[in-house]
Write a structure and sequence with these properties.
This protein is mainly alpha-helical. The chain has 10 helices and no strands. Helix 4 packs antiparallel against helix 8 and helix 6 packs antiparallel against helix 7. It is elongated, with a radius of gyration of 18 Å.
């Protein structure tokens, strides 16, 4: 089966499975709602971060989307049926990752634009400038896509959506905040801390908005390579 046909099949799975559609909708709703609360009560000196603060929680939905999209293949023998139609496991996993990436990027860019417009409205003259705001909106789409793919790769390694969320959610909600204020610590290169520099007008340290996203991309690439290796070696 050619790659385009496999990609189309994976897109149909995402479009027709309610949990996947629900998590994509949750990315938009959670990010916009939490960003509105942050902007409305903001006293932050960084208006760009105030406008996009909700991404910190919206990313949990993106992670759930990526993890669920892959882990659903390990339930009820679904992977056996998939591999019967697409014996080339590398082609299937590449199509799965591409479908996840395109879906997450689309909802991420919409989320970024809506969040930017909302932030400028709520913050008024104190809101982010258009150049910084557009960088944040584009970064929102890229960052949420990378986090969804990171979860997808880890789910392929662990063969469990629950285990994947059990690893990533504490990392995103607890670990980064606990060690994040330690200057020069490993927190600077954690996938979420590095990637979220794109939501700051000013930053300190060796990483900037785009180099931070590049670090997150390295984490994601490593997870996907590990997932592809695990898929090749695991019995369906």
């Amino acid at each position: 089966m050619p790659f385009q046909a496999v990609l189309h099949a994976e897109w149909l799975k995402i479009r027709t499975l309610r949990p996947l559609v629900g998590t994509l909708c949750a990315v938009l709703i959670t990010t916009v709602a939490c960003s509105a609360l942050s902007a409305a009560g903001s006293g932050d000196s960084d208006p760009l971060f105030s406008a996009f603060a909700g991404v910190s929680l919206g990313q949990i939905a993106a992670v759930a989307f990526g993890a669920t999209a892959v882990s659903s293949e390990f339930q009820g023998g679904a992977l056996r049926l998939t591999l019967a139609a697409v014996p080339d496991r590398r082609r299937w996993f590449a199509a799965k990752a591409t479908a996840i990436a395109l879906s997450a990027l689309a909802i991420g860019l919409v989320t970024g634009l809506v969040t930017l417009l909302q932030g400028r409205f709520l913050l008024g003259a104190a809101g982010p400038t258009w150049p910084d705001g557009l960088r944040g909106a584009l970064g929102c789409g890229v960052y949420l896509t990378l986090m969804a793919l990171l979860a997808a790769g880890l789910a392929a390694v662990l063969h469990s959506g629950t285990a994947t969320l059990g690893v990533l959610i504490p990392l995103l909600l607890t670990v980064s905040f606990v060690i994040g204020d330690l200057s020069g610590s490993v927190a600077e290169v954690l996938p979420d801390r590095a990637g979220q520099l794109v939501f700051h007008e000013t930053w300190h340290g060796p990483l900037g908005p785009w180099t931070g996203l590049a670090v997150t991309a390295l984490w994601t690439g490593a997870a996907l390579l590990a997932g592809a290796w695990r898929i090749r070696r695991r019995d369906a």
